[in-house]
Model the fold of this input.
Amino acid sequence: MDPNATVHVVDDHELARNSVCALVESMGVAATVYASAEEFLESYHPGRPGCLVTDVRMLGMSGIELQERLAASKIDLPVVVITAHANTPLTVRAMRNGAVTLLEKPCNDNDLWDAIREALDQDERQRAAAHRRRQIRDRLDSLTQQEREVLDRMVAGKLNKVIARELDVSIRTIENRRHNIFRKFGAESVAELVRLVMESEADPD
Done:
């Protein structure tokens, strides 16, 4: 769990949000509270590690609408939804929006903490994957145009002699460019190279 993570608690009931905050802080994790979704959106800085715990029914924007606003803004902040009015359509909507889970009020402290811990772990995994994708894209950017032409054809499964014919160069030239590609990627096989390229294209930031 990232030691810099913060749990953002959004609930228009002061007692409820302070109760969640106290639980989080008792576990050694920082927490901030907000009386509305609007207040959270005004204060939150995307990119910081953490997760969101939000009530559903609030004055103004609901917790589900907040979740959808974050998704529309491509903010991958894991969300734990809590509500005193759970029903099947609400649960389905929350989970389709990517909620870690939906808990009914009053929440058992152990269940709530387990959900928050899973959300924080998910955030850490997402950040690690995003960092890795950026590293791979940096390697892609380090290729020359000629090397990228060869890489694209390698990923498409083409043999050296076919690539050489398509680019109108010698097989020796293709082999040299392949060598440079493997060196820049730190890859040892075409399979690994293909996997890295596919990973760089997944879930763009």
In short: The first helix runs from residue 14 to 26.
